[in-house]
Design goal:
Helix 1 (16-30) crosses helix 11 (245-259). The protein is of the alpha/beta class. The protein has helices at 16-30, 36-44, 57-73, 90-97, 118-130, 142-146, 150-164, 176-179, 182-194, 213-230, 245-259, 275-285; strands spanning 46-49, 82-85, 103-107, 135-139, 169-173, 199-201, 235-239, 269-273. It has one domain (4-285): Aldolase class I (TIM Barrel, Alpha-Beta Barrel). It has 12 helices and 8 strands.
């Protein structure tokens, strides 16, 4: 399908100076959201992540069991949204969280570089879902975006959207740190939405530049513009580099101020994190906690 021509129906991206000015305003506004109630909500949006070369059935089982134990340890804090792992560990997580409300997220589609055959990406997505993934995070083909092959990049997303099935939540990682400019970040976000994603996500966390407030602002405005044209709500996920409760509150503020209160739900806002979980818990309870 041709997607690139639809980009002309949308306003151009803001300049870097305009983005910087808006980020400064949002950082000031975020101070009012640095409180326990916001931190509790932010904790509930976390896709608790382990994506390491050291992962094993034993370590992932322990990680997932610990996440389930949180329900009893801190009943006053809503638990994380999901556990995010490599596809080969989806079944492992499923066994550990069985009987709990915990959702399972799998990265797939050649994560983190997306540099493999489309057929391999399709099989990996299909196997992740078959093994029990409720949500799948794939990576937009950054190389194709940077060379202007917009239709090819979007068509890959469409194929993987179909492979995952409509019952599976699909998140497309645009790797904003590699795209760099507001123009390409906006185009990548819009193309992913045209192709059917349920979320646009900032980063894999596997390159030097991960989530930034600047990228989040551009992406959230793209989501807003797409919603105003189509009536379809697409979620936003910040991932990589979100380490503190204050970081989480900033992304919460960006989403709330640009997209509105309707997006303040785990169905439309997520944070991909590992180290942030302990820091947010610590900020909620008022003392250092190392639960994970």
């Amino acid at each position: 399908m041709e997607y690139a021509n639809h980009l002309n129906e949308y306003a151009p991206a803001p300049s870097e100076a305009q983005v910087a000015e808006e980020v400064a305003q949002l950082k000031a506004a975020a101070k009012a959201n640095e409180n326990v109630e916001v931190y509790k909500f932010c904790y509930s949006t976390i896709d608790l992540t382990t994506l390491s070369c050291n992962d094993s059935v034993e370590s992932v089982t322990k990680f997932a069991n610990r996440a389930v134990e949180f329900y009893g340890a801190y009943p006053e804090i809503p638990n994380v949204a999901s556990i995010c792992v490599y596809p080969s560990f989806v079944e492992t997580v499923g066994l550990a969280v069985d009987g709990s409300p915990m959702r399972i997220t799998s990265v797939a589609g050649g994560f983190p570089a997306s540099q493999t055959f489309l057929e391999v990406k399709m099989l990996e997505v299909a196997m992740a879902v078959e093994n029990g993934a409720d949500e799948v995070d794939i990576v937009l083909n950054v190389g194709k975006m940077l060379t202007g092959e917009y239709d090819e990049a979007a068509n890959e997303v469409e194929v993987l959207r179909n492979e995952a099935g409509e019952e599976t939540v699909l998140k497309v990682i645009i790797e904003s740190g590699a795209l760099k400019t507001p123009d390409i970040i906006r185009k990548a976000s819009l193309l992913s939405m045209f192709a059917g994603t349920d979320f646009v996500k900032t980063s894999t966390g596997k390159i030097d530049v991960a989530a930034t407030p600047e990228a989040a602002v551009v992406m959230c405005h793209a989501i807003k513009d797409y919603y105003e044209k189509t009536g379809r709500k697409v979620g936003f996920k910040a991932a990589g580099g979100v380490r503190t409760a204050e970081d989480a509150a900033l992304y919460y503020t960006i989403v709330k101020e640009i997209l509105g209160e309707e997006w303040i739900t785990t169905d439309l806002f997520r944070i991909g994190a590992s180290s942030a979980a302990n820091n947010i818990i610590s900020s909620i309870v008022g003392e250092p906690v190392k639960f994970f």
